[in-house]
Amino acid sequence: MDANMTTTSFGGELLSFKLDGIEKIHQGENSRDEKGKIYWKNHAPVLFPVVGKLKRNQTIINGRTFEIPQHGFARDMEFEPVTKLDNFHSYILKSNKYTKARYPFDFELYNTYRQEENKLIFIYKVINRGATNMPFGIGGHPAFKIDPDDFRRGNYYLEFKEEEEKSHFLYLVDGLVGTEYAKNKLIKNKIIELDDTTFENDALIIKGIQNKCISLKNIRTRKTVLTMNFEGWPYLGIWSKPGAPFICLEPWQSTADRVNSSNIFVKKTDMIVLDPGEEFECKFSVEFFN
Fold first, then answer.
1. Alpha-carbon torsion, ordered 65, 68, 74, 80, to 10 deg
2. pTM, to two decimals
3. What is the CATH number of the domain that holds 183?
4. Percent of the chain with pLDDT over 90
5. H or E element: which one contains 97?
6. How far is CA 135 from CA 70, 212, 250, 251, 272, in A?
7. What is the pLDDT of residues 162-173, one digit of tens each?
8. What distances in angstroms separate CA 272 from CA 20, 21, 255, one per listed residue?
9. Structural domain count of the chain
10. For residue 65, what are the domain limits?
């Protein structure tokens, strides 16, 4: 089995993962519809220091108001290469004048990708290099290549390894988390059907998942496309666009602001807070099949 990956220092992002020459990752700006419009420019960005959207795209840190774009700024910044071997690529983003104007903390963010045969492991590490406590959110946003015709016809579905009886879906209102839960999309507590109507109200966001293993499967081919393990992640986001040739499976440590948010950054739900000098590491893996 021949597997290889391609990454870039811009966003410290994974660009490609090929298994026996077959591409598994959405190709960003190189993937366009019949009118030449880009479906989605990214491939598999890291979301930092926020996941999702802030209320009015603003937040209050130490009494001051800062603007942070949806999903943060890291995905649109140049990282520095740390290590680049055939099966191990690592990049670092260090705080600077640009980041401090949006997020007033000293940090180091490492994006690392490790390939083991047909499996790809995403590893994120954050270090607080400042003298004060540092709150943040972080998440993955990999987009996996699928057949758009099969997607339109509803031939893809997601299946958890075990039945999920305690998980619930968050309801989004203009990108913010609503005060009530969304309709439960699980069939037999295990399956989520996918088609052009699945994401009419934005992404699906699931919290309370007990079994952190989910597979993407195709009814027509009767094959498993991939299996993701995301132990240690409180949320899973699922997203695509109508007719698009990709599906995103997104492990998140936190999520968007609530509609009734106070806008105070440290009070956001499920934020991670590091003491000075402390570090936090999280990872998820994806096993691909042809």
1. -40
2. 0.96
3. 2.70.98.10
4. 93
5. helix 97-100
6. 17, 25, 21, 18, 5
7. 999 999 999 999
8. 39, 39, 12
9. 1
10. 3-288
